[in-house]
UniProtKB/TrEMBL annotation:
The keyword Metal-binding applies. The keyword Iron-sulfur does not apply. The lineage of its organism: Archaea, Methanobacteriati, Methanobacteriota, Stenosarchaea group, Halobacteria. Residues 2-78 form the Plastocyanin-like domain. This is Multicopper oxidase domain-containing protein. It comes from Halogeometricum salsisoli.
Length: 81
C-alpha cells in the first residue's frame, strides 16, 4: 500500500470456523464501527475492512486464534514508495 491511500480489504472465509482477524498499526472501519479486530464468519462469510494508510511501516495482519497464527495465517502489510 502507499501512504495516504484508501485501503479496502475483502475477506471471504471458506472454512467453517470463525476467524477473528487483527491488524496491527491501524484502526479500520467495518460499516460504521471502528476496530482493529473483526470476526469473519465461517461458511463463506465475508467482511470488508477499510482504512486510511497513514502509518508507514510493516504491519502484521493475522488471525487471533493462536493455533491459526502458529500455522501461518498471517501476512505483513507494508508501505511501498
Amino acid at each position: 500500500m502507499r501512504r495516504d491511500e484508501h485501503v479496502r480489504i475483502r475477506m471471504t472465509n471458506r472454512s467453517p470456523v470463525v476467524h477473528p482477524m487483527h491488524l496491527h498499526g491501524h484502526f479500520f472501519r467495518v460499516g460504521d464501527a471502528v476496530k482493529d479486530t473483526v470476526p469473519v464468519p465461517g461458511h463463506m462469510g465475508q467482511v470488508i475492512i477499510e482504512f486510511h494508510a497513514d502509518n508507514p511501516g510493516r504491519w502484521l495482519f493475522h488471525c487471533h486464534n493462536l493455533y491459526h497464527l502458529d500455522a501461518g495465517m498471517a501476512r505483513v502489510l507494508r508501505y511501498v514508495e
